[in-house]
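dumping this here so i dont lose it
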């Protein structure tokens, strides 16, 4: 996958809940520089089991090319939304469960007497495995049996009815999620707005790419980064804009193309293992993004080039 790199700097949480930069090697991936810092659900009233990664990576359009990276090559920052701009996964889980309860969704393999309910541990695995809401539900129903519901009293058997069920559930879930975001209780993750503003002031291009539906992402961005920053984005793409969901890098490559840049000019800010590999060998620690500056990222890129 082109988003990660053979020579990478990333971060991973240690047992004491600190953050680490890590050097790693993946021989099957193109050479690029990656910085990543990760965190738990900071400043939020919930926690997910797996630490969240905010990964800064330089995507390459060619999986076989060797990329020479310099500190001056950083032209654009491309941010993921869920997990990067806000810690959102448990909010999504709650909204899905509310939708399952509202439509009385019951899978044949369930041992529960009530509607389908994704617990924290299961959803933590699911959201790190499959990007996008509709693909999550379609995968789950294929694995556990298509459900009965108030939409269909018997499990749907053809593709049209199955797609209709998923569309209805996703639309209701999206509205419920938007209600939660509109409530104003969800803050942006620490340091994200500072980094956006610093990069913008330095003349860097800023983009946001999310696998979520466009209406959901727009609401999230307007609520959390504010209208001025949202309208000041140089590029904004949602899951509706690309055919392939993450971990396919299409959305990031499309953003780079829309910005008029090559993948080597863009630093991607990711959070989940959908867009990552396994990393090790910590070389430094950070408490969260609030201590990371644009100069730090450029220095890190230069450090990786020098180390490589």
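and the seq i came up w/
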């Amino acid at each position: 996958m082109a988003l990660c790199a053979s020579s990478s700097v990333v971060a991973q949480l240690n047992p004491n809940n600190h953050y680490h930069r890590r050097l790693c090697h993946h021989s099957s991936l193109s050479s690029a520089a990656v910085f990543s810092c990760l965190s738990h659900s900071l400043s939020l009233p919930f926690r997910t089991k797996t630490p969240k990664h905010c990964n800064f990576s330089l995507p390459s359009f060619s999986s076989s090319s060797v990329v020479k990276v310099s500190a001056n090559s950083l032209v654009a920052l491309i941010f993921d939304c869920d997990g990067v701009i806000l810690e959102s996964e448990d909010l999504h889980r709650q909204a899905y469960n509310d939708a399952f309860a509202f439509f009385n969704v019951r899978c044949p393999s369930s041992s529960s007497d009530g509607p389908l309910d994704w617990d924290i541990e299961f959803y933590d695995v699911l959201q790190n495995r499959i990007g996008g809401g509709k693909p999550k539900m379609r995968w789950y129903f294929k694995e556990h049996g298509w459900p009965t519901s108030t939409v269909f009293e018997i499990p749907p058997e053809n593709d049209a009815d199955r797609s209709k069920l998923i569309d209805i559930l996703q639309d209701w879930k999206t509205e419920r999620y938007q209600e939660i975001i509109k409530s104003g209780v969800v803050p942006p993750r620490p340091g994200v707005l500072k980094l956006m503003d610093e990069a913008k002031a330095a003349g860097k291009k800023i983009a946001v790419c999310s696998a979520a539906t466009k209406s959901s992402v727009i609401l999230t961005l307007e609520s959390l980064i504010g209208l001025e920053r949202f309208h000041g984005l140089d590029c904004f793409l949602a899951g509706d804009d690309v055919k392939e969901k993450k971990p396919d890098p299409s959305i990031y490559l499309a953003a780079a193309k829309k910005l008029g840049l090559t993948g080597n000019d863009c630093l991607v800010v990711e959070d989940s293992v959908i867009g990552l590999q396994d990393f090790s060998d910590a070389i430094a620690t950070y408490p969260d993004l609030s201590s990371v500056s644009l100069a730090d990222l450029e220095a890190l890129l230069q450090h990786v080039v020098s180390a490589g």
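Confidence is low (pLDDT under 50) at residues 1-51, 58-72, 278-286.
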